[in-house]
Amino acid sequence: MTSVSVFVTNNTYIDFDVFGHWLNGLTVHEAVQARFQSGILQTTGASPDVLQSDTLDNYRTFSLLERFLQAPPKLATQVLLQIPAAVQRKLIEKYYDFDSEVIREILGKKLTNRHRKDVDDVSERTNIRLRSCRRQYDNCKNIFKTVEDMEGSLVNNISVHFLLPEKLAKKYAAIVFFSNNRFETGKKKLQYLSFDDFAYCADLMIHNWTFGAADSQADDMDVEMDRVFLQELRDLKVLTGDKDVYEKHRGLVCSALRGKIPDPTYADIESNFKNLSRCIVSVASGLIHSKELKDFFVDLVEKFIEPCKNARWSKRDVEAFLKAYEAAIQQIPQLKRFQPHLLIVWTRYMTTLKKCILQLYHS
After folding, report:
1. Phi and psi at residue 48, in whole multiples of 5°?
2. Is 63 exposed, middle or buried (0-12, 13-18, 19+ CB in 10 A)?
3. What is the mean pLDDT of residues 274-278?
4. How far is CA 128 from the centre of its chain?
5. What pairs with residue 221 in β-bridges?
């Protein structure tokens, strides 16, 4: 007769309120106190001892699950605990969710074990518990190490390998992109910018300026900037270096804006057009160099946004100028006749730059 061993268990119940306390870095004692203050004993009729035991049991379950959450596809194949698919998805999403202020502190930095010690300072500055900060840092590092060398869509790679919803995967794509290119985000003049500001710009840059961009001829990955495109941007120096092109460009922009923006702003554009244009072109031509690429956001704020703010431009004025500035290039005969490819490069550059500037231009 054949002997068969059978093990039967119920679905594991996950208390997501307690899971939230665990994710936030609370100790068991602190979680018990938080649950007690929520009035759970009155609503359930449980005793303090039962509350203590239940909280401890939940924490043991979460600690057991953590190694599977660090490699989400394994959560579906593990046999220790029976967890419904919908609950698995919720566990993964909550485990990889993060505090924007924590990620803002580490954005653009190299995600290595050596830099993990800096998380202590992040915890102090954000007033978020160290254990939670470490989880968030380790999640970023884990995702970065997994997808940094993969070809194809960065968002899709993150979604597939970590089973994250698209919205959250896009946020992690921004983190990976910033870390890979080491963008400077910590300078004092950039402190007013939020993680969402940078993530918005990262998404634009990934879709328009990387090897994975639609206009790129390379079939590569989203984390690397398209070096051919960056090299071609140097040709935009003609906009400020060729006198005829510069004068024609200036005349077209001023003509398009005359009577459509406040007189003080129009006067400022007329008198400072060279500086404004030189900023936009110099940022473009410098992106081929790692130092200038790293300082992309510093340069935008320092050379364009701050001067416009000091001149009291409204966001609507900035948008009007950038639209006119971008469109006027298409009307310059010398470029249309002799450098048609430059117009394609210009559109690819300005489509992203324009939206980035407007995102960073806070009132």
Report:
1. -55, -35
2. exposed
3. 96
4. 20
5. 152
20 to 34, 81, 98, 128, 347: CA distances (angstroms): 11, 19, 12, 13, 46
State the greatest distance between any 2 C-alpha atoms of the chain, in Å, as a whole number. Answer: 98
Contact yes or no for 249/236 (Cβ under 8 A): no
Q: Are the C-beta atoms of residues 244 and 354 closer than 8 Å to each other?
A: no
Question: Sorting pLDDT into bands at 50, 70 and 90, what band is 7?
Answer: very low
Burial string for 150-181 (b: 16+ CB within 10 Å, else e) reads beebbbebbbebbbbeeebbbbbbbbbbbbbb
Token pair for 279:
């900023």
Tokens encoding 223 = 């984390």
Residue 201 zone, left/alpha/beta (φ > 0; ψ -120 to 50; rest): alpha
pTM: 0.91
Read off the pLDDT of residues 193-222 as tens digits, 9 standing for 90 and up: 999 999 999 999 999 999 876 554 555 567
Indicate the average pLDDT of the chain: 92
Residues 103-112 pLDDT 10s: 999 999 989 8
Question: What single letter denotes the amino acid at residue 214?
Answer: A
CB of 308 closer than 8 Å to CB of 204: no
Q: Is the pLDDT of residue 6 over 50?
A: no
Question: CA 148 to CA 154: how far, in whole Å?
Answer: 8
Q: How far is Cα 277 from Cα 281, in angstroms, rounded to an integer?
A: 6
Cα-based torsion angle of the residue sequence 81, 84, 85, 88 in order, rounded to the nearest 10 degrees:
-50
